[in-house]
Write a structure and sequence with these properties.
Elements: E1 3-6, E2 11-15, E3 19-21, E4 27-34, E5 46-57, E6 63-68, E7 74-79, E8 88-93, E9 108-112, E10 129-137, E11 145-156, E12 167-168, E13 172-176, E14 188-195, E15 203-204, E16 212-221, E17 232-238, E18 257-261, H1 271-281, E19 289-296, E20 299-308, E21 336-340, E22 350-352, E23 368-373, H2 381-399, H3 416-428, E24 439-443, E25 453-454, H4 496-501, H5 504-517, H6 524-548, H7 566-588, E26 608-611, E27 620-627, E28 631-639, E29 644-653, E30 656-663, E31 671-679, E32 682-690
Parallel strand pairs: 8-9, 13-19
Antiparallel strand pairs: 1-2, 2-11, 3-11, 4-10, 5-8, 5-11, 6-7, 6-10, 12-15, 13-14, 14-16, 16-17, 17-18, 18-20, 19-20, 21-23, 21-24, 22-23, 24-25, 26-27, 27-30, 28-29, 28-31, 31-32
Helix pairs in contact: 1-6, 3-5, 6-7
């Protein structure tokens, strides 16, 4: 029933339909008909000024509430606010209210700013037609609610539409859902365009899309982060018939499955990008990343990170593709990607390990191993049986008294080095979710030496001291020592990690690998240079991001530190890593016999310092070379196939520091390159990463 409540040139109010808010995750649309509104176009002279709602609902935080206009403009009123409080009681939204709804508490009574801009409706559209209040309970089958009343008021002096920034140094991703709400329960089709004019060039919202323009199917993703004002998304690029379309986005290898990661509670914006980069430097594939800015339905959404989704692919997890027809012989033996993870999110199916987390103690938790790729929909029974039997064999061997035997122990089934690298990456970051959530591992075919291999790493947004629980802020202590038994969490570490440390050779190999990495990937100067490089990439966009999400100096779950400025965020990150590395050095710097000398006079690698690294393609690289004595010198950059890209050669240079600026126009493809320094004392190479 729609009723015109009042009518004048200065204030015209309309009321809409009411009803039950379903508790099954479906989207509820409540209609409101606007008729004979005068004037018949809304803009900055006369337009929408307020929206009022009355909702009874236990646990108001479950609700997402949007308003949709006849021209399909969507404006977010409130999403996931109020915690376990109840109800929106006589709650109105007005852009001139002193308090944003995100800063209020339930029950929401009074006038508040919405999360979006009501002025976006005042775009010159004809308001006569069907408006819709769109409500979703995103925590289904728990709490019930009802919309009792809602109304829209039009009047004079309305707010203007949002003014989008003119340009950005980051690539721009624009998504238009054509009036549909993005859910975490199903995908919707949307149009996407990507603008990337290359290094050193600005990207403008109204530029012609030059990186991608097409259709995607998109949904929200995440678990604990699903309710953040800045959600993450997963999407697939599609062809004209809705099938998968493999494309290269922002110079990453062609594929169709992608992630738009929202670094909402990581105010450095880079924890994921940092650890993935370090993993790739170590030779362990992790998702490639590109910082970008997202505009959704003409509304700025902040800085995002475009990431590759973990899946089987020659440019991602490079194992054999496993089809439903691969049910016998070597074809059955790979490739599988499995994971230990939370049960929400994507399709869930798998098997339970017969070994509890604490192998000698009775606990209520179990280790549930999920099928990831092939996913539960595509994996067939023979493949399920095979991979379960293989994991069972690994665990039986690891739990046995002869677990360290080379022929019959765990090494028969597992790639030891991958376990070492996986643990060191989780430990240097003190990842509170490490080992127990977002833990991936894979197996290739037996003909490809297909042993159980850990990785890729995933989801480190609350690592590096960014968690105020489970000792996440502590720079001392091991994450593999997560307590067991532990009654307060459903996720515990598999018994694997403690058992492996009982093998003296494994522990020695772990220490040797740590000491090796401390001279390269885990060198503090190198880590800091990576952090500085990423900070430089987001520098011009970070103020926009934190204007959209004014979080600096504020607590956001589960922050331990919340500095007032972005620069202090970066310093806090660096200082935490330095303290963590110092403690790990104390634990791991003995027990491995080193070879050679670390003297700068004898180690050619110590003579070379490259900055920035990683570097944006097309930029200038500065190479500082500190020569202890007179020498000839060559500095060569090659790709990984040995093709020479850049060369500097000098017949003789005096001792001292020499600086060379390398123009990298020839390094036009992102990826890993080698910088090789040749002197009379020897040769050394360092990896250079272009993004």
């Amino acid at each position: 029933m729609v009723q015109l409540l009042s009518s004048s040139l200065y204030a015209q109010t309309f009321a809409g339909d009411t009803g039950v808010i379903t508790d099954d995750g479906t989207i509820n649309y409540f209609n409101l008909q606007v008729t004979d509104l005068n004037p018949s176009a809304i803009d900055t002279s006369f337009g929408i000024v307020s929206v009022c709602i009355n909702i009874s609902h236990t646990w108001a935080d479950d609700l997402v509430i949007w308003l949709k206009s006849p021209d399909n403009t969507l404006v977010e009123l409130a999403s996931h606010n109020g915690g376990d409080g109840d109800n929106y009681e006589n709650c109105c939204f007005n852009m001139d209210a002193p308090t944003n709804i995100t800063a209020a508490t339930a029950p929401f009574t009074g006038v508040f700013q919405p999360e979006g801009n009501l002025g976006d409706f005042n775009n010159g559209q004809n308001p006569n037609g069907t408006w819709q209040l769109v409500i979703v309970d995103e925590y289904p089958f728990a709490d019930f609610g009802e919309l009792h009343e809602w109304k829209i008021t039009f009047g004079t002096n309305p707010n203007a539409p949002s003014t989008l920034f003119s340009s950005s140094d980051l690539p721009l991703i624009l998504v238009n859902t054509n009036g549909l709400l993005i859910s975490d329960l199903f995908r919707i089709d949307a149009s996407m365009s990507i603008i990337d004019n290359g290094p050193g060039n600005s990207n403008h919202i109204y530029d012609v899309p030059n990186d991608f323009y097409g259709t995607v199917s998109i949904e929200k993703r995440g678990s604990s982060s699903i309710g953040f004002p800045q959600p993450s998304y997963s999407f697939e690029t599609q062809n004209d018939t809705g099938g998968n379309l493999n494309v290269s986005l922002l110079d990453m290898p062609k594929e169709n499955d992608w992630i738009l990661y929202a670094p909402y509670n990581d105010k450095s914006l880079m924890r994921n990008a940092l650890i993935y980069h370090l993993s790739n430097e170590m030779g362990r594939y992790a998702s490639r990343t590109r910082f970008c800015e997202l505009i959704l339905n003409n509304s700025y959404q902040g800085i995002y990170v475009l990431e590759e989704k973990i899946k089987q692919d020659s440019a991602r997890v490079n194992i054999a593709e496993l089809t439903p027809d691969d049910t016998t012989g070597d074809q059955l033996t790979g490739g599988y990607i499995l994971k230990i993870d939370k049960y929400d999110g994507e399709q869930v199916d798998g098997f339970t390990s017969p070994y509890p987390p604490c192998i000698d103690t009775s606990v209520w938790q179990t280790i549930f191993i999920q099928y990831h790729d092939p996913n539960p929909e595509n994996i067939v029974s023979q493949q399920k049986n095979y991979i379960k039997a293989y994991v069972d064999s690994f665990e039986v061997a690891l739990a046995s008294t002869g677990f360290a035997d080379f022929d019959t122990g765990f090494r028969k089934y597992a790639d030891e080095s991958s376990f070492i690298d996986f643990s060191l990456l989780n430990e240097i970051a003190r990842n509170v979710d490490g080992y127990r959530w977002s833990t991936f591992f894979y197996k290739d075919k037996n003909s490809s030496n297909g042993k159980f291999t850990m990785g890729p790493i995933w989801d480190f947004n609350i690592a590096f001291g960014n968690a105020d629980f489970y000792n996440g802020v502590m720079t001392e202590g091991w994450q593999w020592d997560f307590p067991c038994p532990f009654d307060y969490d459903g996720g515990l570490n598999p018994f694997w990690w403690h058992r492996l440390l009982e093998d003296s050779l494994y522990l020695t190999n772990l220490k040797c690998r740590w000491q090796e990495l401390r001279t390269s990937t885990f060198d503090l100067n190198h880590i800091n240079s990576v952090i500085d490089s990423f900070a430089a990439v987001v520098d011009s966009a970070k103020e926009r991001h934190f204007e959209k999400y004014p979080l600096l100096g504020e607590y956001v779950w589960p922050n331990t530190y919340y500095p007032e400025t972005y620069e202090e965020e970066i310093d806090t990150l660096k200082n935490w890593i330095a303290a963590r590395v110092e403690w790990m050095d104390e634990q791991l710097s003995t027990g491995c016999v080193a070879t050679g000398s670390n003297s700068p006079e004898n180690n050619v690698a110590d003579l070379l310092n490259i900055f920035p690294n990683p570097v944006l393609r097309g930029s200038t690289i500065v190479a500082n070379i500190n020569l202890p004595a007179e020498t000839s010198l060559s500095l060569i950059i090659t790709d990984l196939t040995g093709n020479q890209k850049v060369m500097i050669s000098h017949e003789m240079l005096l001792s001292g520091t020499h600086t060379f600026k390398l123009q990298c126009q020839s390094l036009n493809m992102p990826g890993c390159y080698l910088i090789t320094l040749k002197t009379d004392r020897g040769t050394a190479s360092e990896k250079l990463f272009i993004f």
